[in-house]
Batch of 4 targets.
Target 1
Amino acid sequence: MKANAVTLTDKEWILPGNRTCPGCALSLAYRHILKALEGQCIVTVPASCATVLHGMYPITAVNVPCVNTPFASTGASATGLVAGLKALGRKGLTVLAFAGDGGTHDIGIQSLSGAAERQMDFIYVCYDNEGYMNTGNQRSGSTPLGAVSGTTPLLGKQQYQKDMTAIMEAHGVPYVATCSASYPLDLYEKVKKARTIEGTRFIHVHTPCPPGWLFPFSDTIKIGELAVETGLVILYEIEDNIFRLTSASESMASKGTPLRPLREYFLQQGRFKTITEEQIDELQEWVNTRWKQCLHRATHA
Amino acid sequence: MAVPRKSNIQIIDGNQAAAIAAKLSRVQVIAAYPITPQTPLTEQLSLFVEDGELKAEYVAVESEHSAMAVCTSASLVGARTFTATSSHGLAYMHEMLHWAAGARLPIVMACVNRAIGAPWNVLNDQQDSISQRDTGWIQIYCRNNQEVMDSVIQAYRIAEQVYVPVMICYDGYILSHTEMPVDVPDQEDVDKYLLPYKPHTILDPANPKNYNLVTLANPRVGVDGKLCHGYMELRYLLQEALQDCPKTIIEAGDEFNRVFGRDYSRLFWEDRNEDAEITIVAMGSLAMEAIVAADMLREQGFNVGVLGLRVFRPFPKADVVRALRKSKLIVVFDKNISYGSEGATCSEIKSALYGTYINAAVRNFIVGLGGRDVKARELVEATKRAIASLKETVINPDYPEWICRI
């Protein structure tokens, strides 16, 4: 049976009063991931917003064993935890790597790629707030085209986002999935499923960031939903090479719901204040094509 | 008293010695990336694991940075870990070296000393490990392959008592690829010598701990009202651990002597230095060359002894001062250079002597960079030039002399 808001466990592994910003999608995602793992995990976290969430010594906001590790090393740190547990014969624990988009798409891609190629047995979650938000919003490999950031201050980013999930799929790992913090039960189900699979499992979570993306703190869920409804974020999973749309993306596909115009998504975020009409048209075309590809892939699985 | 035991002499190179020592130490997780001249060592270890001789996880990582990250995380969950590298690999690890020491993890690493580019050079000097001097690792240098074997085994006993990682350094090619007789210890004896590794932190959901959190400069009160260390207190504790670890190193050496019959009770080696007026100082295999040079100089009537540095970090200041108490001239040969200053071991010697009653002249020579052959004759000539220079001045020159064609 799928979890719903009533049946979801009351038990919390993230304590209230942590240091994330108001409206932070990352803490929402993390909370549901730890619920899906029932706290039976060791987490490794590189420098990122999650480090801030974790707190300051000697006080921490999480109730699971954690290792904080340097920025580039997440995949290797998870490898070390897996190897260490195996060498000691300790069983029953899931190793969870929890890194941001900078730590995944950019500085951490080497160690993640190496670990995935070795098929190390851990779940890697990339929470993607589309920039270096912990250092005050600089562009990353995941910042979208047209977004203004600390290092694309006037013109906005001139390049597309890196499709990290596709890169991980190309590693031939047994499970990849995309999620959104606005759909926590979909995330919960995917982590629960991933927990039962052996090998490197990669889950990408879209996590809207009010102070970085410049939208009101109260709109996090709305912005995340809009990203899915416009087709900018597509919720899917690939298990043993079988592609499947899930949650809102699946129901949009089955009902034939048209994508909402991207313009609506851009208008609600200050970071797109300098985006040009040409860029919007270009992105709209890109999103339409990608959505069609996914629909095709889902029906031809 | 050394216990007489049956020897098991094998003719092996330094890399084989280190690999066998890691196996005898029953390492549980090995993570390494190939780099010349360390490669045969990692190949040997992967063979030990694949053929079942060593029950361990061998992780063929994609970089040295990852090798050390695997070691830090595996060590944190309680596994005995080993890695090995050289040169650029060690430089690439730099961030993680700080992390390993800062997290107080008893990782042992073999550093097969090699020059660093640019330009490319795969041959020996000690610039790589000297460049990592300030990362908080214990550094031990070897003169021969027996010392490579014995030092790796001792390193686990030391590291796991003081919770400081240990780097065993030995010269690329000169030791790593040169075969010489090595007495290989029995597994049973090593098992007696090394006690199981007890991690300082257990990562367990039943008692969750969050390790290496952001730590403020000042002490901070925990939820239980207890005042906990700030960042600076944690740094002091690492310094204190290194300051205090010579007694652990000596104890490990004494115990090694008791079990295996080879004496490592001192932090450096001396050769006929008790009454020497001139002391040659060198580190690693260069110390062996220095003994040959001292022989030649003695034949020519000079009263020369040798001090071979073994433990470079922590630097055994007081003991070195005692050993140099009769020296009028100290000739320091360095296979490294702190650009704009002098050789690293020379700086240590000068620093150790400052404020003591010893007012010896110190002469520093930079030798053997990038595999440049160092001949005993060259050490003799340099020492004689140093002696002759005393007629002009006893004042120490600002910069070292380089033994090369400039």
Target 2
Amino acid sequence: MSLASIAAPRRVLAPVRAFFRLPKALVAAVVLLLPFGLMAVIPSVIAPYSPYTTVGIPLSGPSGSNWLGTDEIGRDVLSRVIFSAQSDVVISLAATAIAFIVGSLIGVFLGYRGGWVDTAGTRIVDVALAFPAIVLALFLIAIFGHGELVEIVAIAAVMMPSMARFARGTSLLLRNRAYIESSEILRASRAYVIRRHLVPNALRSLLVAASVLGASAVLISAALSYLGLGVTPPTPSWGTMLYNAFQNVFQAPIYGVAPGVCITVLAYGYMLLGRGLGELQGRTGRQERAFRTSVTRV
Amino acid sequence: MAKIFASKLLQLVLVLLAISAITFFLLSALPGNAALYRIGPLPSYTPQERAALIAKLSAQLGLNKPLIVQYWIWLTHAVRGDFGLTTQGEQVTTLLGSSVWASVELAIAGLVPSLIASFALALWAFRTRWRRMQALVQGIMSTLFVIPSFWLGFLLVYLLAVKTQSFPASGFVPLAQSASGNFSHLVLPALTLACPLTALFFRYLLAGLEEAEMGAFVVAARAKGISDRAVAYKHVLPNGFLPTITIVGLATGSLLSSLVIVESVFSWPGLGSLLVQSVTVRDFNTLVAIVLLTAAVFVFTSIVVDLIYWFADPRTRRPGQV
């Protein structure tokens, strides 16, 4: 046996070891989120059945062929839970991305611009922030009709104010730094300072905040589909499944457990991701810790 | 004081005006108008006859007037409590009146216990030396914080309605009809509403207490030889619970968000259910009335919060501090 063959596993294991040396919260977040990533990308490989075909007697309990039982029209619950990740993960990611980009830009600009623009903008943001999230989302859905695109935009709109507020705070912390003042002395334009200095330096803590938005997005989208105003059936989604499970709680109590666990674990995973990212960059600021509690509860 | 109160009331009026204007103009920008909705497709009419009918009805309903005039008409009616008719032809105000009390009952039944529980738990967690139990309570609270209430409701129904059959799974009995029936139907939704609120208040209260403990006045009190208990209740608590007032206010103001979910889970006939229903059938008059009511409740609670601060924190009474 040559030395190389003994050394090989060590080389393979090195990245794995490095991964587990990362902050605990980050490791836990990746471990929690990875299955959802797989479920969203390759559901047909993991799931035993198609989410649309009837495979057994409606509302039967767990069995060897249907591990989590069947739903109200005899479809496999496990397969539907797995396929739900597609719509739920995509919707939450898209809404988070929109809210993150637009909210950050508004907030960073307001904080840096200061003056009456900031005062007026912050007022508007505060009012929007204060307005009950679900009510706002429902209002937007009532106006623009329902569909996945409207749902994504509605969720993003609900989360945008809190992101803007956070970004404004971050921008206020940075605007008096020496490198920004020196850039201003060199008569750099506002857009240049924002693009070249503020955004890159704020990005890390903004990303920490974005992961909290991710958790909010999962919860809001699940709530909307629970209310029958989100993903349209027969496309599976955890919220809709929970609603149907609730209607049949006396016949098939096990039906609602998996979708609920998925929603909670995915939201919790996003929260942990934020905490882990924060720990990765050293001391978490007071502002970031405070933001964690601003997750939209449903 | 009176001056501050007056300026807050003015603020309430301004916010309501702004929100009513935004919703009104947003809804008028939608394709189709009330006349179209009322007469429907009318298959037996020729296009000309239909157009004439629409024009006639539009004139009757005042839809041909400029938007700003329409808004004024709507506003003067709304101020008198007249939000028009629902798509079913009922008065919106009557509908609101019948559901608002169910919501208020549920809100109180959720808020009051959660306030008591969170204060008791936070004070206990703050003073205890039993670290493991403290960590466990904190863990449970963090879980309750992110758990979606429709799933919590599901679990509670499963445990307390299906397994042990202690309480009915859903529904509503008016208080006037049967007090015990009303109460037994109230327990599960109130519990579902209270759990996340408890976690929220607990979190802020504990953080506030821990922060107040850092204060120089606590060191001074300890140096004077005051007992731990007296330091906790007389010095830390009065300072530590101030931030929680704001959170309780915010949570109360946006309670309708939670009510929407909890009421649909338990078929509780309150404002939340009404809102979901009006979104589903696109009943805009009801929708606007609920949105305005929500905003009013929100601004009103923020005024109440300011008043409570005025009483609870003498520092805010200094001129120039508010």
Target 3
Amino acid sequence: MAEQKSILLVDDDPSFLDAEAIVLEGFGYRTIKALNPEECFEELKKKLPDLIILDVMMARLDSGFDVCRRLKADDRTKQIPILMLTAVDKKYPFNFGSAAGEPDWLPVEDFLDKPVEAMELVEHVRKLLKEE
Amino acid sequence: MSKRTDLFNRKPEIATTREGLIQAAGSQFSEASHLDEMGKKYSTYVPVLPAVRMFGPKRSLRLAVVGTPCQIMAIRKMQVLNILPSDIIFFTVGLFCMQCFTFDNLMEKGFIKKHHINPEDILKINVKEDFRLKMKSGVTIHIPFEEIEDIAGPACLLCRDFANDFADISVGGLGSPEGYTTSMIRTTLAKRIFTEAVNEGYIKIADVSEVDKAEMLSLIETFVEKKRERAERTTDIQRLSGPREEPSGPLEEKEKGFLGAIEGDELCAECERLNRHLNWVIGFVSHELSGTLGTIVMNISALADPQVAERLDEDKQKRMLLGALGSLKLMQDMVRNYLASSKAKSGQLDFSPTKINLGRDIIRKVTKRLEPSLKMKGMKFICEHCDELEVICDERLIRVAFNNLINNAIKYGSANTPIRSSLREWKNGFKFTITNEGIGIPEDKLEAVFDEFSRFDPLGIGGTGLGLYLVRKIANMHKGSIKADAGYILKGEFITYEMIRKNPDKYIVDSGDKELRKFATFILSIPNCATVRSGSNKRGGN
């Protein structure tokens, strides 16, 4: 039996984290929840996940950006794919999606704009975990 | 032109001959800044925008830029057209500006000759009501602006903006006493930053009487007019001296009216400000709503999609349904707050007082509604004297006020702590007090929390930014008030900032203590709403 893959979910909205976790657990993933960047880094100290799903705007606009840049600058975590998930596009007139992958700005492997449907999330997760 | 100097470099040059033109031909792939050369001849300012450019792709940076009207105008145009890097500029401080100066060939300038000035003896240049040269001898020479037009940047003479109409805040020495700066706050953002800077002690405000303020404004208006007149005069001279084709054919009456309308600079500046505020509000509202919408879509789409739903047991499906319902209720509250705020602004908020029972009709219903949030955080809502207090109030509005106060206490309270409240008769009306333990409120924010879209939200919880603003509106509509108080919990005692100030020896607070608990209290007081107290249970609770 294949090893259960783990996903670290970072979002400041507990009700969204809850929904996201139920869906992903339904598809056999193990989920770990973090409500802020500090909890995210604490969890990473314990064990490295196979994927990180990160909200861009937590306490500040740049919280998510800071987190992903720190993760990609750290040899220990830089290999972990990041799926950035956010509603930030609604507030700022930039196309964040098109910038995904830019090393200095948005060094993430994938980007999804909220609201996102459950199956859409699962499909992106499968792709990032190379399960398709 | 960009003329090649070596394999990798070019230099800007103006070609005036056929040979010069040919020399500049060919492909070259390094940065060619040939327009800089032209720009230098016409630039009216210190080039700060290239400095902004150096931040390049570090998009998370947020800059405040200090600039002359032409620079702020350029930034605003770039922001409207989404030209990078203007997106990282979030705040602009605009300088009052009559013109910038070029000091080349100073000896040949009229005012130098007229006032017999030796440029080497100039100690300091200042611009206030006029152009001032402080000489090494201690003498200050005042020169009217009209006399120094020949050292003004050519484009400055066409500029119509003195008071930096498009900045968030405009500043300048004009009208202020020595050592102070006149500041014109133009946007909500500027108001917040300025207020916080004052509260933090970075800015000291001079005590200016209303009469003096009116004089300052009048002086600024004079300069605004002067600059506009000069621009019109210069434009007329250019029209006379240069070949400039006027549009052919008579304008339709309708077009004339339209052009006349949009040429009103003040109107345009006001529209621009309102537009920016409106855009900000739309952005704020849609962001807050879409966050909640995200949770609803995730939950409902999982239940609706058989591929997902078949993998969830009954218990999980129920959790998702409740999650969606909770978010919908939150959204309903947000929409209600936005609508009420919008109606309050336009004076359309209905006010229909009827007899209501605060405990039964309001508090119990609101807490029942918020039960899932209370449960989620392991909080207990305690209310003293909450039963059977009858008042004449607008039921719908009072429910919004209580909902916002209780919801606020839950959102910013720590998990597993109680929310304490009490409802008492007061001045033939009532007083409702609600206290939570959590992030508290800093002393300098006790008033600001009631501002529209103001939020003391270090946890990044989110919300409408209107909750407490509406509570105050509703309290005022009932001729009542709402105030915030906060402080620390020391050995079980609730100590307000005021108590600490009055008794600094008695209450010693180590603000760095991680174990230190904070509290926040809101007191809603509405007098003369004809209460009738009845019933025997006077110490009920939820």
Target 4
Amino acid sequence: MALLQDEAREEIRRLPDRYEHRQSALIPALFVAQREAGYLSPEALREVSDLLDLPLNEVVAVASFYRLFFLEPVGRHLILLCTNLACMLNGSEAIKRHLASRLGIRPGQTTPDGAFTLRESECLASCHLAPMMLVDRERVGPLTPEAADQVLERYRGR
Amino acid sequence: MAAESILLRFTEGAGTADLDAYLRAGGYEAARHALTALPPESVIDIVEQSGLRGKGGAGFPTGRKWKFIPKGAPVKYVVVNGDEAEPCTFKDHLLLESAPHLLLEGIILVAYAVGAGRAYVYVRRECYLGRERLEQAVAAAQERGFLGRDIFGTEFSLEVIVHTGAGAYIAGEETALLESLEGRRAMPRMRPPFPAIAGLYGKPTVINNVETLCHVPAVIRLGPEAYRALGPPALFSVSGHVRRPGVYELPLGTPMRQMIEHAGGLRPGRRFKAAFPGGSSSAILTEAHLDVPMDYEPLQQAGSMLGSASLIVMDDSTCMVRVVARAMDFYKEESCGKCTPCREGTVWVSQVFERILHGQGRMEDLDLLVHISGGMKNGACFCLLGDSVPPSLDASLAHFRHEYEYHIRTGRCDVEERIAQVPAGSHSRDG
């Protein structure tokens, strides 16, 4: 039985039209699968491999190389807290400790209720907002512990 | 700001992501002029005469890069590097978000100059807003005939496709970007062949950075002399311990001291300590270098480089050991694993820093760092990622060796201890 809905399967089948070589559609296709299935389970990877007619080991090799592909389940919201130089110089370490204690998890983990996955991130190219984080697609900064709490509240129920 | 802003005037206020706003600002006139009045070779000549150099970090002359593209090839590609991820570089994100049509106009000009019918813009995955705005701009430009078939009533046609990465710094290296765009792990390719001869899908390919292409409309509009007379202008990302971190358009050659003033100066009660002039891959400079012009050659003579023109400012509350440890951690995290000196070297260096910062350092660790750094130099690494480790590591050992020694000797940080004695009002949040 297919894991992906017909619509997503059709979307993946159409992706190669934009490229001279079919394999260029692999990264976009993996994002479609991840959007639909939540993460790239072995079944999801196999379906992408079938839909694009690419060897499964190639699909796994690519999925495991890039940081934004999830091979395990993640929370509903992904928090990427930048801890690279500009954010570090502006206190990201304290924000990291604060978020970890508020959420009761360490960076790299997901809250037991499945609401948040917290990750430390490399530079997110928003140094004018340092210290900052990306929550799903939203940039937030400059962060204080209070500002971070408000963002968590806003996303918790979603 | 430069005498005349050529880039940030399109990003200020509400920006020009809206096509009509871009047209009101004079948008697409340079492309119209080039396509209807200039032969492709003239566009290349003008860009070459302007002295425009790549803004992604390598600084290669743009016009010369375009000249490498073989004329007769039936299929050629333009690839735009929008994978901005060099630590503390944030100019391309600003351009993608606030001036996507400026980039599209630059793409039209390069595609026309080299004779390419299709361009791929590789946007960093985390740049969500930039990608959204760029996709909207492509759709709007297509609808109004600035992209697509027979642009400006000429026989020139161009299709622009927006593609994203999936989270990997190495994808910003141009041959690794091509690998990623072809759907593989982003690992750099052997050169030669250079992308100009065999790039995307083995076809001749021009790869340019976002900011680089955003300069091209102004180069065409103003002409090479007037463009050069503006500095030439460049975008500088200024971050760290300044009061107004941000992207500033200033003439190349503006000294660090002045750049810090443009960014609001240091915080009250703080003194300048050190800076990376060109992202974390450039050698750290000190107070003695504050008046060095921020330009390619002067910075090279000072033992560093302009790189992506990202000035990371550090005041006297900064522990240099922690800063370099964080930079080293970045390279360890981002090493693609293709070559041994980088894959292993970055891990070893990080382990030594871990030890020093946890009070378990040994004096001989400093020699060990020098030794590992030496093993990553002189072409030992396959690409620039590994090459990026020695400059800041060596510079920090040369200028701030005493801070390392204090950590090793006492297990504590002398900077933090000094800062702890400063009254709370002027306390920095540095950790």
